[in-house]
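Fold this: DNA-formamidopyrimidine glycosylase
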Amino acid sequence: MPELPEVEALADFLRRRAVSHEVKRVDVASITALKTFDPPPTALHGRRITAVDRHGKFLDLDADGTHLIFHLARAGWLRWNDKLAATPLRPGKHPLALRLALDDGSGFDLSEAGTKKRLAVYVVSDPAQVPGIAGLGPDPLAESFTEAAFAAVLSGRRTQIKGLLRDQKLIAGIGNAYSDEILHAARMSPFKLADSLTDTDVSVLYEAMVDTLRTAVAASSGSAAKDLKAHKHDSLRVHGRAGQPCPVCGDTIAEVSFADSALQYCPTCQTGGRKLADRRMSRLLK
């Protein structure tokens, strides 16, 4: 799933490629992906893209006040093409959900692999009309999201820190992969309760979060859309690396599997050498 760094890199890519261009057409191939009906996608036709923004994991193309907003979900992606096919995209049994064509012949497709279709597209006059954006927590890289603001989010919550970092209503943009990376950098168990953190723990976790995300954003900056997935995979130190040596201490990276996801961590760096039980209600094994 694209997370804050990749979505920011896609936003930067679209700023360089799409801003100032006029929307020639929008083809919707998957009606289930389109979550709004008024204004219709055709309202974008002939409008000039004036800005591209990011809201958590949502991408927002502002076309003269009408916004095309989309969330790529777990298996969605944006594929840019300098020369799109002139033939409009038609519904069918293919992974393509939407195509946006610009006045110079370039544009992009939104595609989604797999059978669980969660990619979501909205056409709205105000980003706040998208429920997922209206309910977003603060952006972890915003100047206003200070260590004190982070401490306030954590305060009094008997929630495992892994889940809290991923909760979009509390902090926007962090998903499964970067929460693993942040906790590894902080040398903290994913199952540690938020309200058990000391002031020092909070400070360490905050610095790990900001540093991890800023580093990932900087590393992805300037990359082409097609290269971002591979770049993310290659840059991760623990997520998706179960069975491999920890780059910090050399211990074997371990995994906890759930029904539809998994987390990875280093026992030596994060849990005092102890293994976490591999079940949904995991606790440290004695």
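The two ends are 34 Å apart (CA to CA). Residues 281-286 have pLDDT under 50 and may be disordered.
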